């Protein structure tokens, strides 16, 4: 049951579904779950959460593998009025301890392998409970859901109530929890359905992770609000994707997906001629990839731009020219402007400045960080994205860089300060600088430049091993360079531009 006037994102989705017998998920070979199945299973999770004491506004953290049930847990959480907090499977104990202590979830769902560590973290913080949730279908939370009622009256939510908190990386190594409201997510999903012309006939090939805005909100919410289906793959595997493409009508991916597909001789015009649209985002798509993909398949990839804090902001047009190296036009209802980062002065066409965004998609603020939130907004409500770009005379936005030192590798964000702090804690390392340099597969490769007392005993392998205890694998440097000193300016600031230039060919064959 769902409420006709509620702003709960789930109620919004519910109102868009006309045929409950349509497949929602195609997964593991021939298995299909329909929208009716989705309604029942998400009700079971909603009932299960309520029975475990989750109240409206409570955080429900989930560090779980991608599976249909993981999606139903997300939907059940929305229905019960909880605030969904997905966590990357790669996060190690120390990273998790920060998120859990900061967010104080009422419930943490995790794999059996992680249970003890999370119980210790939860125990130390004195709140919440841990339930297990395994990809195999085992786990205490899944068991409780199995025994729960198939009906649930969705909780009424206001537009401004929180639906989710997604942690972004922090420039100083501290992550920030971006608070997203029901309205943020429903407005963006609705806009994307219309702009990208999704219908109930669409079958989206979904090979993205679902702990990130791209796979969870952009892909899933858009499909749900169009009543279409997804081919739900647990991870991106070139073979699996190529095999599934004939059954799909569209795909969303990070640029790495497209470079990997291009490397396969199986990617042909015939294989994808029926595909309605290929969409790319989360990191810059190189003009070469855009060009080669079009040459090989006849399809121009549609590049769009968004971020955790705002969901999607701009997109190349569905019908018009999809221009390489640009992220297209502001989406309907969303304002974009370019400003001088220091003075805030609005800049003219073609001038490079910081990209600022205002609209119903823009998040409510950073969880328990009112000052940090205030710093990132202008007085007139525009969010200062931190991305640098310009708008050309035809209105296309291009991103030219980031004013923070963010690295994007394989679509994942890595803030250098976090890796540098971990490197500096290793015995024998005096100081370090972590940079992103062009990488043929990952877009950027995390690269460490290190000043050490003893480079004979420190190798890339033992540095990676030491870091691997505390940092997710995607944050580990792929290469480590030893130098006598790091280049610094008069203010003592490390000149990362010089390092990026010096090591720019580090990953060239
Ligand atoms: P996330 O919060 O993980 O989604 O990362 C958001 C960041 O990814 C943005 O602030 C941009 O720096 C970058 N990004 C997303 N889409 C694009 C794109 N199409 N081109 C270049 N950078 C992008």
| End-to-end separation | 58 Å
Low-confidence stretches: none
CATH-derived architecture of the largest domain? 3-Layer(aba) Sandwich
Ligand species: adenosine monophosphate
> What is the overall silhouette?
globular
Number of domains: 3
What does this protein structure show overall?
- This protein is an alpha/beta fold and 509 residues long.
- The chain folds into three domains: 9-17 and 32-183, ANL, N-terminal domain (Rossmann fold); 236-402, ANL, N-terminal domain (Rossmann fold, 3-Layer(aba) Sandwich); 407-502, ANL, C-terminal domain (GMP Synthetase, Chain A, domain 3).
- It contains 16 helices and 25 strands.
- It has a nine-stranded mixed sheet.
- Helix 3 links the parallel strand 3 and strand 4.
- Helix 2 packs across helix 3 and helix 2 (35-51) crosses helix 6.
- It is globular, with a radius of gyration of 23 Å.
- The model has no long low-confidence stretch (mean pLDDT 93).
- Bound molecules: adenosine monophosphate.
- Adenosine monophosphate is lined by residues 168, 213, 281-284, 303, 305-308, 327, 385, 387, 399, 402, 408, 413.
- The site of adenosine monophosphate has 18 residues, from strand 13, strand 19 and strand 20.
